[in-house]
Amino acid sequence: MGIRFMHCLRYAAAALSVTALLTVTACGTEESTPADSNKQQTATEQTSPITVVASINQWGALAAELGGEDVTVTSIVNTTNVDAHDFEPKTSDVAKLSKAQIVVANGAGYDSWATKSLTSSSNIVSAASVMGAVEGDNPHLWFSKDARVGMAEALTDAFSKTLPSKKAEFKKRLKLWKQSEQSMEDWADDFMKNHTDLAYAATEPVAYYLMADLGFKDSTPKGYAQSTASGGEAAPADLQSFQKIIEDRDIDLLINNTQAANEATNLITGAAGRSEVPVVKVSEQMPSDSKTLDAWINQIINSIVDAVDPDYGCDTDQDDESADGTDADDADKTTSSDDKSGSSSAGDTSGTGEKSNDSASTEPDSSDATNADEEDQDITYIRECKSSSSNTSTDENSSGSTNNDGSGADANKDDAQSSGDDQPDPGK
Q1: 167-194 vs 57-67: helix axis angle to the nearest 10?
Q2: Sign of the C-alpha dihedral computed for residues 259, 260, 262 and 265 taken in this order
Q3: At residue 275, what are phi and psi to the nearest 5 degrees?
Q4: What pLDDT does residue 232 have?
């Protein structure tokens, strides 16, 4: 009886052990099923647009164009009335930069305020880093074709890593952007081949890279250039040297930075007006009505060409031939089509009706706009000939306009805001 009872206990204990083992095994298997692992991965994968904050609207506009509907871009400085060199960000600006998934900066000392509060883990795309530029180099990198291409590739790479599911879309936008950039470079290169030995001088080296890309020689007096580059005042002897090269017509045009107006620049532009040397006005920040970075630059190039050779690419014989249907293709290359009007406004070159994506982050009520996708077509930038009946200046854009009246360098202040705080959203 006792032996039989002990056997029963052993059988019961064995049964309980097997049951417990099966239960534990089943639970372990349930926790590590591939299906549940995939569900967890899907739940953490980002599907919303990437939050991008740019220090300046030049690079913010490029980020918006390349990111399309998959990014939300905010530009801290996006008015021509604010100098990014001396900009002091508000607490809200610093907060937006710190919370951004991707921060887009210029670098080279131009916008050090944008990155000095960020941590080492911040995802920063910097034009200076892309180009190997350092503080002390000319920081106006957006006017360099090499910098634009380098930044476009760097931004696309950053977007693709942050939102891998949209990698194909990002690559497609980059390809279309490169085609558009190349169209601008092609007609600019053609102009350069037909116009050699051109020289210019500048009140401030804002367009240095652009003028170099166009083949112009920089004839700005060295003493003046060095003093302005360091933020100092030009010596009287340097101003006299500047006036002399203008009066002697040793330069083909004068570049005037509309965001760096002072007594010296007014003196120089006045001398240019009296000597009938064309003055091309260029701002540092992209005007709010420009839809893309390249559209703005294409406008400036057209103004430079207008100053040197206004008839270039605007042969009326070609227009007559196209009207007869004999040479329409050539005419299309030199005149604007229905969706690319011959207006001097940079926005008209896109032909898409799309608004710029960069928004004024310094205005609390401003909303972050997202760019409409243009995946079905690229933008072709061309020579935009001025109409003989409307040869008007574009002072309201503070860039790309040409005049010979020697007026002051701050013609844009009629419509510019008093600070970066209260400004319209260019995306609206």
Answers
A1: 120
A2: negative
A3: -95, 5
A4: 85
